[in-house]
Amino acid sequence: NESLPDQVWLVYDHLNIQQWFLCTKVPLHDAKGEVIGVAGAMKPLETTGPDSPYVRFGPAVNYVLRRYDEKLKVPFLAELTGCSVSQFDRGFRRMFSMSPTQYILRVRVNAARNMLSTSGSSIAEIALSSGFYDQAQLARYFKQITGMTPSKYRSQFRTS
After folding, report:
1. In principle, which of 49, 86, 121, 153 could form an S-S bond with 125, CB 3.0–4.6 Å?
2. Which residues are CB-neighbours of 57 under 8 A, at least 6 positions away?
3. Under a CB-based contact definition with an 8 Å cutoff, are residues 64 and 80 in contact?
4. Using N-to-C axis directions, what is the helix angle for 100-118 and 85-96, rounded to 10°?
5. Spatial contact of 104 and 68, defined as CB atoms under 8 Å apart
6. DSSP per-residue codes, 59-120
7. Structure pTM?
8. Which residues contact residue 97 at a Cβ distance below 8 angstroms, ignoring those fewer than 6 apart?
9. Which residue, among 61, 48, 60, 49, has the nearest Cα to 9 in the 3D structure?
């Protein structure tokens, strides 16, 4: 029953590319004051503009979005931002409500979700293509984040 202003979400944009968006949701009320729906607005999160509080993290955020399939280390991401590892971790958690490691996992799982719903590749191939060590690691984190196994997700959301 409360507005949720300026939440940061990682979602696919209209070009099917993972991006960060700043999202606001507000409840819609009828004449009696009862909630009858939710209205929302999203806009791309500006990580490059001089006035953006996210600008410091832009290099790391964008690096992960482009190279999630590679071995990624938090100290390297911190280096990209000019922060110590502890400064980077604290600031990242404050800005994105997740740790840098959780962000990497979320990007990888989102990539796997996209591949599961749009390709005929095996789950093992998708695991490797999305940056996981193997199918078991993908399955563990996929279920932790989405609440379902990769196989179940594919059977429910396959579009091609």
Report:
1. 121
2. 47, 81, 91, 92, 95, 96
3. no
4. 60
5. yes
6. HHHHHHHHHTTS---HHHHHHHHT--HHHHHHHHHHHHSS-HHHHHHHHHHHHHHHHHHH--
7. 0.77
8. 8
9. 61
Nearest one of 93, 57, 96 to 77, comparing CA atoms: 57
| H helix and E strand count, the chain | 7, 3
Residue labelled with tokens 């060590």:
133
Residue 134 carries which DSSP code? S
Q: What is the pLDDT of residues 87-126, one digit of tens each?
A: 999 999 988 888 999 999 999 999 999 999 999 999 999 9
**Which pair of tokens denotes residue 127?**
């695991």
Tokens in use for 25?
């949701």
